[in-house]
Amino acid sequence: MKGLIPIILCTLLICSCGENVQRQKLDSSYQMIEGLAQGTSYHITYNDTLNRNFQLQVDSIIKVIDLSMSTYIENSLISKCNTSLTNCELDEHMLCVFWKSYEVHYLTNGDFDPTVKPLIDFWGFGTSEITTQDAIDSSIVDSLLQYVGMDKIKLFDKETEEVIEYLSAREFGDAENYELIKDGQIQLDFNAIAQGYTVDVICEFLQNKEVENYLVEVGGEVRVKGKNGKGNPWKVGIDKPVEESRGGRPLQAVLTLDDKSIATSGNYRKYRIKDGVKYSHTISAKTGYPVTHKILSATVVTDDCMTADAFATAFMVMGHEKAIAYLKTHPSEMEGYLIYSDENGNLLSYITPSLENKIEEKLD
């Protein structure tokens, strides 16, 4: 569940769900393109001195990434991998996302895990719904856990015949030189990182076209560079972690960003109720169950959007106390804004010191 709202040129408000778009005339030197992507929407605002429209190129980029990593496309590369009982071929997109997933999994002690797909499906949040009408059977959860875990999938270099373990940095060759070695029943789901990755790929495309000022948003994940049409830094709103009302989506805060990426993950809108119990869509790969932490949303600011996207999800899994501890020990790598509740349901927040001067509070 994404909770970021780009505020374009300080006059254009775009909800990450793609609805309730309020428009005012853009600065003539800026363009805006938008469309559907990965089960959600995208919105891009940019300044191009040649006045080029990149709609077709952006749509093509998104289509290629979908054909690589969408679990909802039957003939996508990841869908073929998930149904295969043997090793899986890779393309450049899956290789990059897999390696980042491997890195974040390692750094978060397993709280980020893209092999959680069988559990996501079991709890009714994936491409299939196994037990949404049945009683929750702990024995089924236990049986599914044997097919979950990054230790059950490895990256194999076909040229050197080497199984590659996680390293802090590594240069890769062509994706065709690698494959994934996995147990037959292991299934991957990169939805918690793919939108951030898509943002990064689109930004790389714009930079290659020498576009210096842009805001790229896909499904609520955002990356900005340069200035908006008024010569000011870009602003992004963070949703207040409450269910959407008829009055729209209230903001918790507005952040001013400069050449940064931001991603938010939350549990306050996407959930299922079974036998009077609310089940979060954030599933722990360690327990097999939806998390029950008091954390409501996690916003992460980093240089690249893929990293922000992955850590926002990981923080939701680990809970606010561990997330705060992680942020305190990695101040040079990321900034964070965590919203959680106390025992009485009151909203509390933790903001990394370096982010505080970029925030305009909206706690009404």
Helix-strand blueprint:
Blueprint (H helix, E strand, L loop, with lengths): L3 E5 L3 E2 L16 E8 L2 E8 L7 H15 L7 H7 L4 E2 L2 H16 L9 H6 L15 H8 L7 E5 L4 E3 L13 E5 L8 H18 L4 E6 L2 E5 L8 E6 L11 E7 L3 E6 L4 E4 L2 E4 L14 E8 L2 H14 L1 H10 L5 E7 L5 E5 L1 H4 L2 E3 L3
Antiparallel strand pairs: 1-2, 1-11, 3-4, 4-9, 5-8, 6-7, 6-8, 9-10, 10-13, 11-12, 12-19, 13-16, 14-15, 16-17, 17-18
Helix pairs in contact: 1-6, 3-7, 6-7, 7-8
Number of strands: 19
CATH superfamily of the domain at 67-188: ApbE-like domains
Taking pLDDT < 50 over at least 5 consecutive residues as the criterion, the unreliable ranges are 8-25
Give helix % range: 25-40%
| CATH C-level category of the domain at 67-188 | Alpha Beta
* Distance between the ends: 22 Å
Order of helices and strands: EEEEHHEHHHEEEHEEEEEEEEHHEEHE
Structural class: alpha+beta
State which percent range the strand residues make up: 25-35%
Largest sheet: 8 strands, antiparallel
Give the C-alpha Rg: 20 Å
Overall mean pLDDT: 86
Tertiary shape: globular
Figure out the total of helices: 9
CATH topology of the domain at 67-188: T-fold
Strand order across the biggest sheet? 3-4-9-10-13-16-17-18
User: What CATH architecture of the domain at 67-188 do you see?
Assistant: Roll
